[in-house]
Specification:
The complex is a heterodimer of chains A (511) and B (487). With 511 residues, chain A is mainly alpha-helical. In chain A, 75% of the residues lie in helices and 3% in strands. The radius of gyration of chain A is 22 Å and the shape is globular. Chain B starts with 7 loop residues before the first helix and ends with a helix.
């Protein structure tokens, strides 16, 4: 089942590569939309059969791959990866939909790369073998490299090279960390293994953990991106085509957080505890720095990119507070960030496609003639701000609640990020949509076309759903975050996790 | 050691690959003499047939491990894999040659025969277990390659390259001979096995001679393998030589050179006094090669020069395995496997890259800028080149990734953590120039001239070579044990 989900897009890409010859064919877009939609439906089927009460991984698949090195093809899913898989498939479908009119040249290659990218990301979330994980981790770089480099805007080649060099540097250090871990397993078990489930049982000393944690964390921190390793992100986000930005912000950054949750913390809990203060402070710097820089941007896409730095800082801060609310908040905020920031990039992409500019000063008063567009953008913008009733609020609230219990100072700083987010996002909205519509080029813009509408509606619905009734999502997340908290053995472990969860949900505003 | 073989038939089987290859090459020269000019093209297909035949004979010969020619050659598993790699490389080189040979008016017969002689030198080098045999094999190989480098007589660059290659090559051979003399003086034998046996008993004075001898031999090998700081010849020779020959120098002679170096190092590695001293030199050479090769490649504009510097860097990666073999006996098996695997990987990726360079090269020109928009004009060639570049960078799921993974895992297992980190970071640097080729092919618009003029067809043989190497790059990347599980 999991293998089918992972490799279906790749199969689609191969078929696409082999069949379509004509340049003007519309088959690539419809074909790839169908494939990603089927993948999404399959992952929904996974959701219905998933048992949120069970502990550990489900739908596991394992077969030996390179026995001499202890490498196996091992897949499995838990609450954390389940939601991320759903998010990936949803956002890929949406970004393919959003590309229908935006991508005009070399369509076939474009959709092939989109589908390969989907396979790479899904594999990253589902692999339970470090070697396999690394392969998917690298595999997802390549299509994105092409997507930014071929279909991006003016500075695309600089951006794509910067992106790939940053991430590769992280990857090779991660490889060193993985190999060190492997040889520790050789020493401990007598035969080496890359199997994550077995490696979890490896009891390592604090000193050994420290360096391996750093090696892996460095790679993940680049992907997140954590201050001061974030400088690739604004360039890559800004230059990428709309769909690339959606996937980058929506899913790709989550692979970094996912890596921290899946590998760094459970494998090296002692090191994670030791380094948590440093990482938390970096996250706080990211929150405030990202927000202040966003405030200074003239380019709407760059603004949203910096807002990502700030929001991802929130997630990291939540995770490294190591209590149930903050970790759950961090995880659900990953989903929220995918929805809201992915949505914001989509909105900016829609207007960019019409006007070929992203400068906020080129717009103004769009609310007067683009009614549907203005309303939907506002909802998504407000969900990113964290307005109660929308998804962003749930995540930020849980994170700040958890962090407050962990360290008041952190919480105070983090809260300032929420306020700044409201400032820069509302300013952006104001500059684009309100005021006089005096630019003649803006007066005859067409409102949303049907495929754009269909791309935005699922995101808006999700934003409301998570904002008003987050319980189903929290139910899925709870075991995963509970596992993290238990690994860290915080003082709260004496209290039953589910009680905590119930409390957290009850502290939400009345619906 | 010098026991005469008692079963003549077994003896024949053991030496058949070498003897037959020699005869085959001579026969091609003779046939070329008597065939009418328009029939001479048959030489290359004949050469390919010869490679297939030798492959078959080698499998026969390696059925039983043996030491033919009174122990001068050793037919062991290591040598077998080296020969497999060399024959695959030789076969692919012949396959990518026809168009180029045709275009540049290179005489078919001489070209093929010399290629086969070079191959003979390579496979002999891989099995030679005695220093004089090693030297002779190396000379057979080198002389053939000197001539092949200069075989485009009308092209001054080709002649310049040949002269440079020859002068520096002869110089390095002198080092090698001197080194062999020192080893012989210290131990009284040229057989590697005997040297290994006599070393522990060597006195203070002899020990010094062994060090000097090994240093000189290493210097000779550094030249042949284009390892820094003796790598200066490589870019010029690679640029000037006919492209298929460049491919063969870059791949075949490296495989053979590393095989020979492995034999020498193995004979010295178990000697207590040696291990502490050798590794430091090898460490430095490896780091220099990886760093210099990768950084110098960034500024190259010519694909052949770029691949020359990249090959220097790759020699550096491969030298890590030799270092591990020499200094950490516990990891020796893993490191040897890593060496063999990487040689195969290196061979495939480079031949793919050169194959594409031949397919889309124009007369006397291999500037990277000419690949602009190749993805639009010939998507399959661009895809093949992209695959080669990604594999050289070490991106999974390609053979290049598994090779790097194997080498650096051996390095980490042996405790060379810093070396692994330096090497891996150097390979990130390499991404800059490998990916730039992809940038040019995929992200630049084709020049008007390129878009309008139809490229000449790639040709069936070259297409086959590109297809085979592409498929192997991916398959061996996903199932690495298909190769090492052979024997």
């Amino acid at each position: 089942m999991l293998s089918i989900i992972i490799f279906l897009p790749l199969l689609g890409a191969v078929i696409l590569a082999l069949t379509v010859r004509r340049k003007e064919s519309t088959f690539p877009r419809w074909g790839s939309l169908t494939v990603s939609l089927i993948t999404f439906i399959l992952s929904l089927a996974l959701l219905t059969r998933y048992d949120p009460t069970a502990i550990g991984f489900q739908f596991e698949e394992q077969c030996s791959w390179v026995p001499a090195w202890g490498i196996s093809y091992h897949l499995g899913i838990d609450g954390l990866s389940l939601l991320l898989v759903l998010l990936t498939n949803l956002l890929t479908t949406i970004s393919i939909l959003s590309s229908f009119t935006a991508i005009k040249h070399r369509q076939k290659e474009y959709y092939i790369f989109m589908l390969i990218l989907q396979t790479g990301i899904l594999g990253t979330f589902l692999a339970l073998d470090l070697f396999l994980f690394y392969i998917f981790w690298e595999l997802m770089l390549i299509p994105l490299y092409f997507l930014i480099g071929i279909w991006g805007s003016a500075d695309r080649i600089y951006a794509t090279m910067k992106f790939i060099l940053y991430t590769m540097t992280g990857s090779v250090l991660m490889l060193v960390g993985i190999l060190m871990l492997y040889f520790k397993s050789v020493a401990a078990f007598g035969h080496g293994t890359f199997d994550l489930v077995k490696l979890y049982e490896l009891g390592l000393g604090a000193h050994e953990q420290f360096w391996m944690f750093l090696a892996l964390f460095f790679a993940f921190a680049i992907k997140v991106p954590l201050f001061p390793l974030h400088t690739w992100l604004p360039d890559a986000h800004t230059e990428a085509p709309t769909a690339g930005s959606i996937i980058l912000a929506g899913v790709l950054l989550k692979t970094g957080v996912y890596g921290i949750l899946r590998f760094c913390i459970p494998l090296f809990p002692l090191a994670a505890r030791q380094l948590a203060p440093a990482i938390s402070w970096l996250a706080i710097v990211a929150i405030i720095y990202g927000a202040l820089t966003a405030l200074a941007q003239k380019d709407a896409k760059r603004l949203v990119a910096y807002s990502s730095v700030s929001h991802m800082g929130f997630i990291i801060l939540g995770i490294f507070a190591f209590n149930l609310q903050s970790v759950s908040g961090g995880i659900i905020q990953m989903i929220n960030h995918g929805i809201s920031t992915g949505g914001l990039f989509l909105c900016i992409g829609i207007i960019y496609e019409r006007r070929h500019t992203r400068l906020m000063s080129d717009f103004g008063g769009l609310a007067q003639n683009l009614h549907k567009y203005a309303v939907l953008t506002m909802i998504i913008m407000l969900s990113s701000v964290g307005l109660p009733g929308l998804n962003g609020f749930i995540g930020e609230f849980l994170i700040i609640l958890g962090v407050f219990k962990h360290n008041i100072l952190y919480a105070v700083f983090a809260t300032s990020g929420v306020i700044l987010a409201a400032v820069y996002l509302l300013t952006m909205y104001q500059k684009i949509f309100f005021g006089p519509n005096d630019n003649p080029k803006n007066q005859k813009l067409a409102d949303l076309r049907s495929h754009e509408l269909w791309a935005l509606i699922p995101l808006v619905l999700l934003a409301f759903w998570i904002g008003l009734y987050p319980k189903p999502f929290l139910n899925i997340i709870e075991p995963a975050s509970n596992a993290i908290v238990q690994t860290m053995q915080t003082p709260h472990t004496s209290e039953t996790p589910s009680r905590f969860m119930v409390e957290a949900v009850h502290e939400l505003p009345p619906r | 050691m010098m026991s005469q073989p008692t079963v003549p038939q077994l003896f024949w089987v053991e030496v058949a690959p070498f003897v037959v290859l020699c005869i085959w090459a001579l026969a091609i020269i003779l046939a070329d003499l008597f065939l009418p000019a328009e029939r001479r093209r048959v030489a290359l297909p004949l050469g390919f047939l010869g490679v297939v035949l030798i492959a078959y004979l080698s499998i026969q010969a390696f059925e039983i491990p043996g030491n033919p020619f009174g122990g001068m050659l050793t037919l062991d598993t290591f040598a077998f894999f080296c020969i497999v790699v060399i024959l695959v490389g030789g076969g692919l080189t012949i396959l990518i040659s026809p168009r180029y040979v045709q275009r540049e008016h290179i005489p078919h017969g001489e070209y093929t025969a010399l290629l086969l002689f070079a191959m003979l030198g390579m496979i002999l080098l891989a099995v030679s277990n005695e220093l004089i045999t090693l030297l002779l094999s190396l000379e057979i190989l080198s002389l053939s390659l000197y001539i092949l480098t200069g075989i485009e007589r009308h092209n001054p660059r080709s002649s310049e390259a040949a002269l440079k290659y020859f002068l520096l090559g002869a110089f390095s051979t002198a080092f090698l001979i001197m080194g062999i003399a020192f080893l012989y003086g210290a131990t009284g034998s040229t057989f590697l096995v005997t040297i290994a046996e006599r070393l522990p008993a060597a006195g203070q004075q002899s020990a010094l001679w062994v060090f000097v001898g090994f240093g000189l031999i290493l210097a000779g090998f550094c030249f042949k393998l284009a390892l820094a700081p003796l790598h200066m010849w490589a870019p010029d020779v690679y640029e000037g030589a006919p492209t298929p020959i460049t491919a063969f120098i870059a791949t075949g002679s490296k495989v053979a050179g590393f095989a020979a170096l492995w034999h020498v190092v193995m004979s010295l590695a178990d000697w207590q006094a040696m291990t502490q001293n050798t590794f430091y030199v090898l460490w430095i050479i490896a780091v220099f090669s990886m760093v210099i090769g990768n950084f110098a490649a960034i500024v190259q504009k010519n694909i052949k020069r770029l691949l020359a510097y990249s090959s220097i860097a790759h020699s550096g990666y491969i030298l890590i395995t030799i270092l591990v073999i020499a200094s950490v006996p516990a990891v020796r098996t893993n490191a040897t496997q890593a060496l063999l695997y990487y040689l195969m990987a290196y061979m495939l990726m480079n031949l793919l890259a050169f194959g594409v360079a031949i397919a889309c090269g124009r007369k006397g020109d291999s500037n990277i800028e000419h690949y602009a928009g190749l993805a639009r004009t010939s998507p399959l060639l661009a895809a093949a080149m992209a695959l080669a570049m990604l594999s050289l960078t070490g991106v999974p799921p390609t053979v290049g990734f598994v090779g790097k993974f194997y080498i650096f895992s051996a390095a980490i297992q042996a405790g060379y953590l810093e070396l692994a980190i330096i090497g891996l970071l150097a390979s990130v640097v390499s991404a800059v120039y490998y990916l730039r080729v992809i940038v040019v092919m995929y992200m630049h618009e084709p020049s008007r001239e390129a878009a309008e003029t139809a490229r000449e067809p790639v040709g069936a043989a070259n297409s086959l070579a590109l297809l085979v190497s592409s498929v192997m790059i991916i398959l061996l990347g996903i199932f690495p044990f298909w190769f090492l599980g052979l024997k």
